[in-house]
Amino acid sequence: MAIFDIKLPKRIAKALRLSNGDVQKQQRRVLKKLLTKARFTDFGQKYHFDNILMQEDIVHSYQKTVPIYNYNSIYKEWWHKTLEGKADICWPGKIKYYALSSGTSEASSKYLPITNDLLQGNKTIMIKQLLSLRNYTDVNVRSIGRGWLMLGGSTDLEKGPGYYAGDLSGISVKKSPFWFQPFYKPTKRISKEKDWNKKLEEIVSHAKDWDIAFIVGVPAWVQMCMEMVIERYHLNNIHEIWPNLSYFVHGGVSLEPYRLGFKKLLGKPIVYIETYLASEGFIAYQSRPNAQGGMKLVVSDHIFFEFVPFDNENFLPNGDLVDNPETLLVSDVQEGKDYALLISTPAGAWRYLLGDTVRFTDKKKFEVIISGRTKHFLSLVGEHLSVDNMNRALQLASEEMDISIPEFTVAGEPHGTFFAHKWFVACDHPIDEKKLITLIDENIKKLNDDYAVERKSALKDVTIKVLPEEAFLNFLASRGKMGAQHKFPRVLKGDILEAWNKFLIEKEY
C-alpha cells in the first residue's frame, strides 16, 4: 500500500487544498481562527479576544493587547493551572497530554501542552511534506510504502493526575492514525521501552527482519544506531541490510557536522530532508531539493508567526528580550538576517518566544534555516558567533581533513585580561588537533566579519580539546538526558559549563 493511494480524512484533505495566496491574508486567517476558538478561555477573556476580532486590523490589535511570553512567564501565570486539571485556561477544554522538553540546557523539564488541534495541524503538515517528495526526482517515492524506522521517545507516557506526559514523538506515535501503523518500526513493544540503551539493542537485534526505506530522528542517535547495526552484522555499509533505505528525515540540530560520518555508513546516496518539528508545533519542512538548506515555513496552517530581529537593540547580552522589542510579520522580514521566533498556536501558546533563531534564505518561498538559539551564541567581546557559523566552519574543516566529528560544543573563557574560545570536539580517531582548530578559526573568520575583527583584538586565542564520543553521551546520561529527543548544547555557559568541566575532571577525560 503506497502512502499516496490512501484516502485521507476530510479535515486533512481540505487543509491540503489551501491555496498559496497572499501570505498576509493567510496569517491573518490563521490568527483569526486561533482567536475565535480561544475567545471563551480565561486567557481570551482577560485579553479581550472578542474585541480584537471586531477590529479592522486584528493583527495590530492582537500585538498591542497581548504581551510577549516565554516559557517561564506563561507557565507561572497560566499553564500551571492546566496541570492542576483546570479547563479552558489558554485553549478550550482540559489538557490531557504534555510534551516534556528541556531543550539542550535546562536542568528541569518543561511541560508543554499538547492538544488534539495541535496534533491535527502537525499531521496535516506531515502529509504535506510527504506529498512534496514528488519534487525529489532522483528517488522512487513509492519506497515510502516500505518500513519507517522512527528513533523517538518512549510511547509509555508518564501518568499524572488527569494527564499523560512524555516526549512529543512518543505522544505522536501513540496517537498516530491507523493507516500509518503498517509502516511504523520499531514494534509497539520496543517503542514503549524507556531505557534508551535497551531500546537501541532491541532495534539492532530486529534490524535484519525489517525492510527500512525511511529513517526519522536526530542525526547523532541515528548515526549511532546504524553503526551498531553494521557492527552487529559485520557489514560494510547499512545498505547491505536495508537495500531500500532512501530517505533520512532529520531535525533538532544541523546535519552538517554529521554528513561525512553518514556518508561512510552508506552504500549509495540517500535523500536528506530537514524538518523543524518543535514540541510547540510543526514550524517548517524542506519541501524541495537544493533549497539552500531552507525549510518552508507553514504560514497557511495552524501557527501565527512574529519575528524579533536578533540584535543588540532587541536582546540583552544574556539572550533575554528587552521590554517592548520590535516585532515583524513574515511579509516584513529580510533575507540573511537572524530573527527570534514568536508563535501563537492551537495549544494555548500566545506570542510565545520559542528560543530558536531563524534566517530567511528565500523570502518569496518563505524558506528558513535554523541559525541558532537566543541563549546559545558567543559574544564575549562582540564576535557574535552563532551556531550556524560553528556548524559551517566545522563542516568545512572536517571535509578538508576527511574526519567525522559527531559532536561538539564551545565555551568562552578568560585569557588574562581578555578572552578566548575553547572547543570540545568528539572524534574516535587520532587527529591533528592544531590543524583542526586552525582550520576552524580561519573558516569562522571568513564567515563572520565581527569574529575576524575581534580575533585581532580582545579575542586572544582559540583552543581545542578532542574527546571520545562517549564523553558527550556519558555527560548527557549523567544528567538524565539519554535518548532520541536529547541534544548536546552547542554553547556552554553558566551552571552547565561548570558541570561539564567537573564531569571531565571526575571521569579523567
Task: Give the structure's gist in a few sentences.
This protein is of the alpha/beta class and 509 residues long.
Rg over CA atoms: 23 Å
Mean pLDDT, as a whole number?
A: 87
Share of residues in helices? 25-40%
Distance between the termini: 51 Å
Q: Give the beta-strand count.
A: 19
Low-confidence stretches: 1-8
Describe the global form: globular
State which percent range the strand residues make up.
Answer: 15-25%
> Going across the major beta sheet, what is the strand order?
6-3-7-8-9-10-11-15-14-13-12
Number of domains: 3
Tally of individual helices: 17
Could you please describe the fold and organization of this structure?
This is GH3 auxin-responsive promoter. InterPro entries: GH3, GH3_C, GH3_M. It holds the Pfam family GH3_C. It comes from Arachidicoccus soli. Strand 13 (338-344) and strand 14 form a beta hairpin. The radius of gyration is 23 Å and the shape is globular. The chain contains 17 helices and 19 strands. The chain is α/β, with parallel strands linked by helices.
Describe the SSE topology:
Blueprint: H1 10-16, H2 23-38, H3 42-46, H4 49-54, H5 58-65, H6 71-83, E1 97-101, E2 110-114, H7 116-132, E3 147-150, E4 158-160, E5 163-166, H8 168-174, E6 184-185, H9 188-191, H10 196-206, E7 212-217, H11 219-232, E8 247-250, H12 256-265, E9 271-278, E10 281-285, E11 295-297, E12 304-309, E13 338-344, E14 352-362, E15 367-373, H13 387-401, E16 408-415, E17 418-426, H14 433-447, H15 449-454, E18 459-467, H16 469-478, E19 491-492, H17 494-506
Domain GH3 middle: 298-363
GO molecular function: acid-amino acid ligase activity
GO cellular component, one term: cytoplasm
